[in-house]
Design goal:
142 residues, mainly beta, Immunoglobulin-like, six-stranded mixed beta sheet, three-stranded antiparallel beta sheet, 1 helix, 3% helix
Length: 142
């Protein structure tokens, strides 16, 4: 009687896929500043109106630390962005730069603020963010 010899069958052994190594994130030194004025959607009227942006500081600033205020608006359909470095938790928006610049009918301006570390080397300047950007606030100025 013939003997049947079993034929080996190859089996698939999956190779474990390594998990991606998480990139370490450097925590910010400060939490995001909290906008307090103007309230969301506030309307200002007239060139002589004083528009002052105010926020709660997330802590006391040290040497070479400041706030970066960012204002965005559309002019002629094109997005414009303006940045201003300030040392106190508030800034008066210059009417000469902004009043009547944003497109009709809403004349909408968006603003945010963050804590930064100022870098200076000769006549070159830069910054390192020390906080996340604040929430976006909008105001209107016609």
């Amino acid at each position: 009687t013939p003997t049947i010899t079993p034929t080996p069958v190859s089996t698939y052994t999956p190779t474990p896929t390594p998990l991606p190594t998480p990139t370490p994130t450097i925590p910010f030194a400060f939490s995001a500043p909290k906008p307090v004025f103007p309230e969301e959607g506030t309307w200002f009227h007239g060139r002589d109106t004083i528009v002052e942006l105010k926020w709660e500081p997330p802590g006391e600033l040290g040497p070479n630390q400041a706030y970066m205020v960012i204002i965005k608006y559309k002019e002629g359909g094109e997005l414009k962005e303006f940045r201003q470095v300030v040392e106190k938790p508030g800034w008066v928006v210059p009417a000469s730069f902004f009043h009547g610049k944003a497109d009709q009918p809403d004349r909408t301006y968006e603003w945010q603020v963050q804590v930064i570390y100022l870098l200076k080397q000769g006549d070159r300047e830069g910054f390192i963010p020390l906080s996340p950007l604040s929430e976006v606030r909008t105001f209107h100025w016609d």
